[in-house]
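S1.2 Input.
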Amino acid sequence: METALKVLRPPPELTISDWADQNRRLSSEASAEPGQWRTSRAEYQRGIMEAISDASTETVVIMSSAQVGKTEVLNNACGYHIDQDPAPIMVVMPTERDAETWSKDRFSPMARDTPCLQGKIADPRSRDGNNKILHKRFPGGHLTIVGANAPSGLASRPIRLLLCDEVDRYPFSAGAEGDPVNLARKRTVTFWNRKIVLVSTPTNKGTSRIEAAFEESDQRRFWVPCPDCGAEQLLTWTQVRWSKGPEGDHRPETARYHCADCDAAWRDETRWAAVSKGHWVAEQPFAGVAGFHLNEIYSPWVRLEAMVRAFLSARSGGDETMKTFVNTSLGETWVETGEAPDWQRLYDRREAWKPGTVPAGGLFLTAGADVQKDRIEVDVWAWGRGLESWLVDHVVIEGGPDRHDAWSELTALLDKSWPHERGAHLRIARLAIDTGYEAPAVYSWSRAQGFAQVAPVKGVEGFNRSSPVAGPTFVDATEGGKRLRRGARLWTVAVSTFKAETYRFLRLARPTEEERAEGAAFPPGTIHLPTWVESEWLKQVVAEQLVTVRTKRGFAKLEWQKLRERNEALDCRVYARAAAWIAGADRWPDEKWRDLEDQLGAAPYGDTDPAGQIHRPGQAPQGKRRSDWLGRREGWF
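S1.3 Output.
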């Protein structure tokens, strides 16, 4: 009876920040500053936790950089509700692995070291099932921890407190169930006092989940008074300045923040003291959604010298590394450069190599197939280290998917091999085929060929650099007129990601002939086009452009629009790139690349393999497994 009354008792007049200051203890393995929690250490966290505590606020959105303590805010919200206001809680992480990591490394130490939580969650060594890694029970509620890639976890039970971390890293769809954030939101509809917290560093402008949620909020930003003149201001990167040496070399150790009003230079300690006196200001009317934006300049754990070093490194690394800085340090969305390269410039940069031959740097082949009403177009690409690539073949199979011979010709292409410059023969490691036209026919053919070599793909708009290809998911297929449930495997491809990457790679500066003669290499990602490729193909590969459009609700959205009707070359490139991702090229360690080089004889003559064994071009080192992508030829073994 006493336990029941405690559950029914209304929550105390205690905010999450008050609870954390009184009870929370930081663990040594989860924090650089173990001991009693102090909200004043990062004063901006107080307003965020008060918003989560506020009954009039249904949704809280935190769009921020890394290193501002946003995950600890979620931890405090969990601890508060377990101790003071029991409820069904769900924490959603990008993947199930992330969910397990958070449970083991962040939540469990907090539950162990915070005295008021001890005894409320069962001992993990007990056998009653009340404390599992991803599901924990406590009096009056439970905590479920799931990955956004697991639809069964998202749809499992009603939830009152929903905490979603790093939502911009979520897949486009949880299996075949749709957007994981919307799936999780549906778990809260039965609770009148539900609370939804969305947290993330942003990604690309127009496609970022957290940016879209922030734009629907009251958009609060943290204003800080200048210690010298008292002028309140937002802390921005443009006010961070540093000196240069006599020879123009940058000196990050001299970095200071300069007041936007009086130009007073703040040292790190001055900046941290100023932040402790700041306050949140909403830029839009409040309508139940509180939004917060922060960058690393506000963080008491980050020195400006480190930020400047990160910036200089990112700037020298090009768009890819600069995007990381903008997202994770400034907490801002990245605007993709989607201007189409000039096809005539690409025509002038074509390179001569023997038609149908794989150049020396190519280590494996993938293909992209675009199914049209009256033909199937296929481009075969060779890939090397750093995703350097070469167009090896362009095939047009006449006749649409209703023509049996067209599928036979496509099947024959899977068995074909292309001679490598070093003497070997290569087959297609993976072919990605579009399912946008006549999907049942594509599924049936792919099933017959085997999904180890063929990957049916479905393109979706949007950017997702961390995981541009999702899947596979099982879909129904038809074989001999009979419907086979879950008979095919479908991969989902964020085509915007690979289109932008292709344009970025096409624009890369190349070393001159003199520089190459002195040993300069092509930059990673360089796309090599052969002299046999025609102007029509080049026009197709640059047939789209990324533009910013406005939705009906007035929000900015990035959208690819055609500059000309035909764009098959670009689509085939995207599918071939997706096939390389599916094959694992983006995640291979150096040993894998070295193994392929060894088997093809692509390493310098007489070079040694990782085991120190001397080998010759065309000779596979002893003890190495020969790649299935290498075609048989006389004298190979």
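S1.4 Remarks. The longest helix spans residues 96-113.
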